[in-house]
């Protein structure tokens, strides 16, 4: 592997452009240059799952530049990152190159196994040969912030009650929602000269938030800026986050 030819962190992590091949001339609002291009990379990423499971990956990240692709792996038993790099041949897409990288790493693993080395030792030895000390281990851990999942009406409800979304993430949200309701109801209560319609809205908003409290749903904000990320627990790849 051509691992020493690359400086870390992996240069020029891509901003806009096709998430699968990097092509810059894509239609506004689109994330891929074509359906086929996306499919090809998704296929190569699925192919990588066999290797990642063999290596006991907890997290992995896939990124590419004009000249290289890189697969960073953090195994469950270490906080070090091993980087597998492969040079892109001319005319080879990141997806094609990733496939070559996977086959080569797989071959290395089988070669070790054929020398009567145990499965886990073969995996450990491949990872150790490719450790890249200069990469910050946090850089491939996806953001695990839990984002509240709200309906459009519930989002409006939050606004009417003047509650920030962060309150639902970090705060004692049951208490905060009650507090916000009492505060806003006081302001808009018709008996105290408030706006009757607004008072109804506040009550409706409160009901909607009580619904959410009964069964609070969150979605995890999986993904890394600029590169594809893999989570070993779910065995799934997530596309890069928009920057
Ligand atoms: Zn593309």
What gap, in angstroms, lies between the N and C termini?
A: 30 Å
Number of helices: 7
Question: What is the strand content?
Answer: 5-15%
User: Structurally, how many domains make up the residues?
Assistant: 2
- Biggest sheet strand order reads 3-2-1-6-7
Helix share of residues? 40-55%
Secondary structure class reads alpha+beta
Which ligands accompany this protein?
zinc ion
> Residue-averaged pLDDT, rounded?
87
Oligomer: single chain
Shape, per Cα inertia axes = elongated
**Order of helix and strand elements from N to C terminus:** HEEEHHEHHHHEEE
Describe the structure.
By secondary structure, this protein is an alpha+beta fold. The chain has two domains: about 5-140 and about 220-240, no CATH class; about 145-220, DnaJ domain (Helix Hairpins), CATH 1.10.287.110. It has helices at about 35-55, 95-115, 120-130, 150-160, 165-170, 175-190, 195-215; strands at about 55-65, 70-75, 80-85, 145-150, 220, 230, 235-240. The strands form two sheets. A five-stranded antiparallel beta sheet has the order 3-2-1-6-7. A two-stranded antiparallel ribbon has the order 4-5. Strand 2 and strand 3 form a beta hairpin. Helix 1 (about 35-55) runs parallel beside helix 2 (about 95-115) and helix 4 crosses helix 7. The model is unreliable at about 1-15 (pLDDT under 50). Zinc ion binds near residues 18, 20, 21, 23 and 37.
SSE inventory with pairings:
Layout lengths: L34 H20 L2 E8 L3 E8 L6 E6 L6 H21 L4 H11 L16 E3 L3 H9 L4 H6 L2 H16 L7 H19 L3 E3 L7 E4 L4 E3 L5
Antiparallel strand pairs: 1-2, 1-6, 2-3, 4-5, 6-7
The structure holds zinc ion.
């Amino acid at each position: 592997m051509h691992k020493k030819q690359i400086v870390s962190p992996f240069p020029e992590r891509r901003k806009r452009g096709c998430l699968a091949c990097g092509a810059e001339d894509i239609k506004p609002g689109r994330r891929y240059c074509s359906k086929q291009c996306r499919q090809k990379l998704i296929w190569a990423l699925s192919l990588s799952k066999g290797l990642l499971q063999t290596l006991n990956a907890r997290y992995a990240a896939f990124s590419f530049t004009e000249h290289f692709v890189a697969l960073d792996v953090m195994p469950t038993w270490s906080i070090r990152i091993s980087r597998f790099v492969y040079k892109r041949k001319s005319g080879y897409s990141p997806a094609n190159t990733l496939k070559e990288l996977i086959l080569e790493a797989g071959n290395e693993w089988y070669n070790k196994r054929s020398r009567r080395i145990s499965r886990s030792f073969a995996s450990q030895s491949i990872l150790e040969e490719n450790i890249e000390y200069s990469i910050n281990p946090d850089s491939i851990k996806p953001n695990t912030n839990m984002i509240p999942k709200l309906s459009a009406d519930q989002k409006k409800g939050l606004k009417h009650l003047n509650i920030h979304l962060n309150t639902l993430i970090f705060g004692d949200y049951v208490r905060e929602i009650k507090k916000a309701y009492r505060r806003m109801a006081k302001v808009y209560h018709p008996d105290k000269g408030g706006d009757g319609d607004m008072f109804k809205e506040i009550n409706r908003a409160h009901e909607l938030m009580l619904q959410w409290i009964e069964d609070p749903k969150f979605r995890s904000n999986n993904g890394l800026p600029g590169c594809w990320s893999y989570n070993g627990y779910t065995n799934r790849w997530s596309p890069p986050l928009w920057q």
